[in-house]
Amino acid sequence: MPLAERKSMSDIRHSLLRRDPLSAAKEALYHLDISLGSALQTSGGSGGSPPIEKSSVDLVEEFIFHAPKDNRNVQTKRLSCLQELQLLEIMCSYFQEQSRDGVRHLIFSALFGLQGNQVDDSRMAMLSKLVSMAIAVGRVPILECAATWLQRSHAVCCVRVARVLVDDYCKVVPGSAHTLKQVFNTSPAFCCQFITAVTALYDLSSEDLTPPPALLEMVVDWITEDPRLLLLTFLNTPVPAGSQSRGCLELTPLLGLLRWSVKAPLANQRNRKHALANGHAELEKGAGKGVEYDELYSKLHLSVLQVFLMLQVHLTEKNLIGQLSVLQWEHVVGLVDEVGRLGEELNPLHAAGHVQLALDRLAQAMQVAMATGALLCARDELRPLCSRLPHNNLMQLVMSGPFQPPLYPHIHAPRPTGLPPLPPHTSPLSPHIHSALSPHAHTHTHAHAHAALSPHNTHTHAVISPHAFHPAMGFPYRPIR
Amino acid sequence: MFDGSTMTAMQTTHSHTPQNTYSPHELALEIKAFISGVDQTQGRKLSVRDHARCAVRLLCTVPACRGAVLEHLRGVYDEYVSGFLQDLETEGDNEGGSSMDSNLEDVIKEIHSVLSEFIRLNPKAWAPLVSTWAVDLLGQLSSKHAGRRAAPHSSSLNELLQLWMSCAATRSLMEIYSQCLAAMLAWCPDACVDALLDTSVQHSPHFDWVVAHIGSAFPDTIVSRVLACGLKDFTAHGYPTGAEMTNLQGARASPSPSLAAMDKSNRVPKIGSVVGILGHLASRHSDSIKRELFRMFQDSVCPPSQPPPTTPSGTGAWENSVHLRRAAVPFLLQLIALSPTLLGAVSAELVDSLRPPVLLQLQSQLQGLPREELENLLGLAVHLISQFPAGGAKVLRFLADTATPSSVIISGPSPSPHEGVRESCDRLLQMLLMHLHKLVYNRPDGDEPYAHSSFSSSVPPTARVIPFLEELQSHIADLCGETLRLERKRHLWLHQLLSLLSVYGGPSVATEALCHLLTLARNPEELALASLLHAPLSGSIPRLIPAAVARCVAQIHTQNLSSRELSQLLNNLATAVQSQEEDRKGVGGAASAQAFMSVQVGAAVSNHLHDFCPLLLHGDHAVSRAAARLLSCSQLPRSATPAHILVIARAAVAHFFLALRQRGVGGLRDGGRGGGEAVTYSMRLLSRLAAYSPLTLKAVLQQLVEGALHRGHADLFGGQATGDDTTISPSPVPDLGPSLLDINCKFGTTVNFSGSVWSVFHAGVIGKGLKPPNASPQLDPDRVTQNLQTLLAVTVQCCSSAGVGSGANSSNGSVAGSANGSRFKQSSDEPAPINAEAAKAIAVALVENICPDVTNGELAWPPEEHAKTTVERDIHIRRAFEANPILFHLLRVVAAGRPALCYCSVVLRSLLATLLAHWESSREPLVLDSPWQLQASCLLVSCMGEGQLLPPVLSNVHELFPHLTPFEVRLLLLGIWEYMRGNSPMPQKFTFSAEKGLFYRDFSRDGDVARYMAPIHSVLHKNIDQLGHLCWRFQV
To answer: Which PANTHER family does this one have (chain A) (predicted)?
Structure first.
């Protein structure tokens, strides 16, 4: 096979060279489809996906992405924008028409998967445009493929794609945000990954990295509509242990969202201060929007807390309580550091209220996370960490809380060896996910969202005390699996 | 949950944008339609217009299509522009061809509104994208359609601008671009101007209108950015290498301007477009260009230790790079060299920015350059300076100031950093002079080597204009003043420059320069500069000195010189003339430049003498003295008209008396030196005038006598200012007398002579007592004597020089004689014979002035009794003698010039008559009791003897007078009268003795003297005890 195959490949290449770039690209895609499809059939669904051949990769690079060949001095013409659009259109229709999921995913990763860890700019740009276009014209298969891609690729690439999408739909073209918003309905999996990527991108560390209002609004709308969205990837990934170390995105956007809600009061204050220093007299507008944003962020915070509670159910179901830390300790340490630094950076006299709000949210989140088993840590560890922060009553309570029952026997135990390592590529997305989402079940809990977040509300405090939420307590969610 | 409130808020914020209500399916169809150009539902081909609409819709809905849509829109714009031009071209033929245009025009409007809305809403995202697109499209459109028939030629920028701005498509693009630029200036100005410049370079002349338009919309930013980009590019391409620089300079030295043009066009590309753009903007925004140029210069040389002040527009970081800073100065020079407009903008104020710290910094920066580059830079700078259209004078002063060593002490063995700067300036200045020299002396040739690329077009080849010199022409006065300060080195430079200027500017400038030098020089050294200047010019400019002198005279006439300058000018001219005389007398053979000039000056001054003579009577004594000096040493021209000469003579005499008076007054002030000099000059002038012609001699003498007798001058010579007409004499008592009106009113009733005007007698007014004694202040007797001597000296000089005509001789004699009063004596020691004609002139003048009427004025004497008829006249004449002691001296002069005394016969007779009357009526025992009459008698008789009206035996009687009684004196005087009656004083009785040069009278022909001797002898007999020793004097 290899010889004949290779020969035919070079024949194909010669025939393609004579064509105009667009039809050549179309042809190359066709050949890739045929060869991968047959390869998939021969491997017979035995679990492992067939390796993509070098010759196919070359073909893709030469005729679809027009990558410059260093060994051959063929003049590589870049496609014009119009041709590029046509190519995108061709790809769109191809993925739409390809009925076999396996082949589709294979082709997608053949086209856009990263070879040799190098980031190909033009390919990334093409992918971003393809996804952007797919969002516009509602091509679900592409979005599904993109979700998988986002899950498997390095965070840097994901962030780039996310940035392009945010730019396209939330910044550049006014009024196009609702197109992106439809993604929630068309492809929740993509939506979840998108949120993860976006929270990784916008970490509020500078003004540029503050989520644009339209994006924030959209994300909050999505989450309030169905908080389970955030756990979609987590639940659909069989054993979430393995993927984390490769520099991919996290399984859940929980940490990112938590960062948003906790740091937002401080970051807003800082941005306003910079704007003042730069002499932009847009205080009126800024103040008005600030109130609006505060509301959004507290909504977001409540949703995150609720998702922690949901998470507890799932962990219990899966018998993973105490074994899997959904919020990683190092990340929490990083978040606490960031909050501390931001608080110092702001003048504590003028920003006392904002600092307190941020600390309240942090304390609440940590308390809930610890109680629900999303964060595995002991109070003794928490204390030295949080003592660096400014004083906060709630935080004080959380740190010096009542006796903690030994709920988590496996804390700091080495990772349980009993779990067998799973094969790396089982089908990552099961077709039955969609039916699992019921976006209309649970509106009663956050009727008084901001009241619940008032720092001195002892009622809230009581509600989220670890004793009140025993793992056995029911929650009105149907487990997804 | 769907949060409705926030959503509606979102919608209201974006309510003005086209609301996209398309379903994904519709969008997919739309994309297909856009790609294929075919309507997907109806299957027909889309029109250009619909296609464009479709594109716009996609732009608003599908972000991924952005690039493609913009690319497609290029075609739409292009289509519109071709249609537009097509219409223009066929406009003359038919009118109805614009249907397609109007169709597309609304699409273009639509596109414009969508894009500008996007930019307004989100400038950060859209402005960079759209600005590059727009500017690129503009470039493409304008160069693509440049060749069209309707498009004007690319050189006519205004027409081009008008055409494109009337085209909706390009105007819309331009507006969009402006909007982008306005938005982007806030955060990334470099990028957008870079793009603009790149496009400008790419579509070179056709794109200029865009740059011009944008530039005038954002002058400050564009200018500073353009400069910064140019600088960066300049550094990137490196300095112009030595070869290129020599090319540039070679363009000057070699006769092929095409080489220079090529050189300019294909070297550093951006500097060309920078020059072009700035040139466009210069017409309206020269201020901001100038400001930016200076800012760049200042930033480049401000010391690196202190960070340059951040300017609002300047975010470019070129100031921070040492390399760029170092390149800034060469870059600016190069830039200016390529554009006369920029040169003009900068030149006027360049010097103001060159403060000492800046200079030091500049020096240290330039020291780092390799030697060859430095040379080139200097050459370029020199060339630029020579092209300065304005501010040249300032530059020159700056250079000279800086290059002049401040003092001897500083330029010691250890050179300070300032010394370095000074030396650089020194070199620069010398190079400048050499360059100018080359330019000036090569100029008249039609095809001379200098043909710089950027100027050869604007200047016709025949008349090379050197702007630097052009401008300096109006500063000649200052230059001359500076030169005359004779500072080390500086005056050499300036002098060289002056001569260059003179050659460049031709006769008028040369004349002006010389004239200034002559006016402003204060001593012979400074005056020498004038002759130094004249020497090289005399060859090329004929009749320079006459023109200069004429100009000086014109200046005098316009009276815009201060009296100090005026006297300087006159003195300088005089010095020049005198040096000629000295040279002629002295070395003679060695005709120096000075002598050469002075000869010409002498000649020129002679022609203008009558113009100078009013100055003799100038109110300022220094001026009048200088004028006297000049006149006294210059030749009277043979061609002068009598009228002129007489005017001069009159003025000269008037000046003489002024000088005498001044000598007295000034004696108190400055030791009499000035006054004495003035008198000396005046005397010399008078004797020159007298020697000139008999006419002038007579005029001068007559004037002198008149002046001496003038009441105003009487006090100078010891006389009294009282004349007959007392009414004019200043009376210390206010005149309270009756007015004529009062008297007339009274007249009818009573005739009362007392106190009337008729009762005025010599002694006073009847009823008012005696006249108050005339209390006019008497002068110091010494000074009176001195004045007398001076007057007599000048008179004698005039008289004696008349026949000889050697003015130099007499003038030298008088110059040698100082003011110690020995002059008179000296000239009588060596008696120059007094000219008879001159003496006669004096005599006539005397008679005219003293004698009030001419009745009985004949020369022959009547019998003594007839004197009764002329009593009134006699008294008048005697009073004149009493009032003016000078008269006796003048009489003596007349007497010396025999036979002139004959003409004074009337005067002598009257005087003698009054004396006779006095002695007759005198009842004094001794004559010594009436001293004046005694002296007058003695002087009269001796005078008559001197004039040979009396034989020596008779004239000796005056020796007896002091020892006699009044009666005896009368006897003797009567005898004299008798003799005179018997032997009338007739000029024809005198004969000329050739060997002595004098007239003599042979008394032997007049009959026996002995019969007149009887009274004398009897008086001798009577007083033999006292007069025995005198008897021998009276032996016939």
So the answer is: INTEGRATOR COMPLEX SUBUNIT 15
Q: Is there a domain that residue A477 lies in?
A: yes
pLDDT of residue A427: 38
* Model pLDDT for residues A368-379, shown as the tens digit of each residue: 888 888 888 777
Instruction: Confirm whether A297 is domain-assigned.
Output: yes
Which range of B8-12, B405-409, B430-434 scores highest in mean pLDDT? It is B430-434
- List chain A residues with CB under 8 Å of B17: 174-175
Is the residue at A334 inside a domain? yes
Instruction: State the pTM of this model.
Output: 0.55
Compare all CA atoms of chain A with the CA of B73 and give the residue at the minimum distance. A82
Token pair for B289: 């260009």
- B658, pLDDT greater than 80: yes
Distance CA B712, CA B732 (A): 17
Report the half-sphere exposure of B985 (CA within 13 A, side-chain side): 30
| Most confident segment among A153-167, B349-363, B629-643, B764-778 | A153-167
Contacts of residue B283, defined as CB under 8 A and 6 or more positions apart, other chains included, come to none
Q: For residues A326 and A375, is the Cβ–Cβ distance under 8 A?
A: yes
Confidence band, pLDDT 50/70/90 cuts, at residue A9: low
In Å, how far is A384's CA from the nearest CA of chain B?
40
- pLDDT for the residue numbered B1: 42
Task: Say which of B13, B61, B71 has its CB closest to residue A136.
Answer: B61
Average pLDDT, chain B: 74
Closest CA to A32 of A111, A87, A88, A86: A111
B60 contacts B17 by C-beta, under 8 angstroms: yes
**Cα(B115)–Cα(B430) distance, rounded to whole angstroms?**
61
Dihedral sign, CA of B502, B506, B511, B512? negative
What is the rounded radius of gyration, in angstroms, for the C-alpha atoms of chain A? Answer: 25
- Chain B residues at the A interface, defined by Cβ less than 8 Å, are 1-3, 6-7, 9-10, 13-14, 17-20, 23-25, 27-28, 31-32, 34-35, 59-68, 70-72, 118, 121-122, 125-126
CB B593 within 8 A of CB B532: yes
Burial degree of B1030 (CB within 10 A; 0-12, 13-18, 19+): middle
Give the number of domains in chain A.
Answer: 1
Coil/strand/helix, residue A327: strand
User: Token match 């004793």: residue?
Assistant: A467
Q: Cα–Cα distance between A366 and A375 in angstroms, integer?
A: 8
